[in-house]
Every structure is written in C-alpha cells, then in structure tokens.
Write a structure and sequence with these properties.
single chain; 160 residues; alpha/beta; Rossmann fold; four-stranded parallel beta sheet; two-stranded antiparallel sheet; 5 helices; globular; binds ligand DLZ
Length: 160
C-alpha cells in the first residue's frame, strides 16, 4: 500500500456510483479489534454516505484474519451480495506467522475473485507495527475501510 502518497479516505463522491439498492457483505476479523472495528465502521459510513441502505449491509465477524477466507466464501456463495468486503489487520511479530497469514488470506480472497462473480474487496491491513495500522484506520493516512467501500461500489457499477 503506497499510502504515503494517497490518503485512503480521499475520493470524489461525484464520481462514485450511487449504492441505492445494492447489498454488501462485510466480514471482519476480531483480532486487532481496535483497528478492524474502525475499518468496518469506516466502510459502513462510506457505503451509507453513497446511498447504500444500512439494512442492506450485512456484517459478520470472524476470529482472525485467516478466517476471512471462509467468511467471505460463505457470503459469496450465498448469492445475496453485490460485493463482499473482507477486513482484517495483521501486525508483524517475531515469528513468520505474519507471512503465512498474509499469503493465505491474499491467495484465498484472490481465488474467490477468480472463481465467482461477486467482487471481494481486499481490506486486509498488513503492517510492521500498531502505529502504521492506526494511521490507516482513521489516522494520518485515512481509513482503508472508506477505500474498500468506494472500491466495492466502483466494482459493482463497472461489472454488474
Ligand atoms: C494467530 C494470529 C496472529 C499471531 N496474529 C494475527 C494478526 O496479527 N491478525 C489477525 O487477524 N490474526 C492473527 N492471528 C490469528 C489467525 O488469523 C487465525 O485466527 C488463527 O491462526 C486461527 O486460525
């Protein structure tokens, strides 16, 4: 994420397709909840600001980012949603666990995008420390949840 050059919350609302009548699934991880709840709330607020009815946004939590794959997969396969947003936060630790989770989630969500017709938006923050995650979840660099919401609406408008 080259976000030093781009505020994650910057978008031109006149260029975003209105989301009225669109149904969005958001699956979010409980791990690093300070961050993921802020991302989730950013996504919901931006969807609503751009016309999506709150009752058309379905939230589901999973324990950790690795479970985003299963959660997003269930949402996609349900056929209920125009787009699915997967939100998580993985912070690098002392072991290679970070790499396995990031690679697993990336591969799993990518596979869903290739195999099904519902866009799955990648809202996984992968950072070296907590401060970098805070900066991207409503801090200095905006909120990646906002960016995911805008991306979802753009993908729906373009392909559905
Ligand atoms: C185990 C683990 C670790 C070490 N770190 C994170 C993290 O930074 N962010 C996150 O979302 N989840 C983490 N997890 C939990 C895994 O995603 C997963 O829930 C467990 O390995 C159980 O499958």
């Amino acid at each position: 994420m080259a976000t030093e050059l781009k505020n994650l919350s910057s978008y031109d609302s006149t260029k975003i397709a209105n989301g009225k009548g669109r149904r969005i699934g958001i699956v979010y991880a409980e791990w690093n909840e300070e961050i993921t709840y802020a991302l989730r709330d950013g996504a919901v607020n931006t969807l609503v600001e751009n016309g999506v009815d709150e009752q058309d946004i379905h939230l589901a939590s999973v324990p950790g980012s690795f479970e985003l794959i299963f959660g997003a997969s269930q949402m996609v396969k349900s056929g209920k949603y125009d787009a699915v947003i997967a939100i998580g936060c993985v912070i690098r630790g002392d072991t290679p666990h970070f790499d396995y989770i990031c690679e697993g989630v990336t591969a799993g969500l990518s596979k869903l995008n290739v195999e099904y017709d519902t866009p799955v938006i990648f809202g996984l923050i992968t950072t070296n420390n907590l401060l970098q995650a805070q900066e991207r979840s409503g801090g200095r660099l905006g909120n990646k949840g906002d960016e995911c919401a805008v991306t979802a609406l753009q993908m729906i408008a373009q392909f559905k």
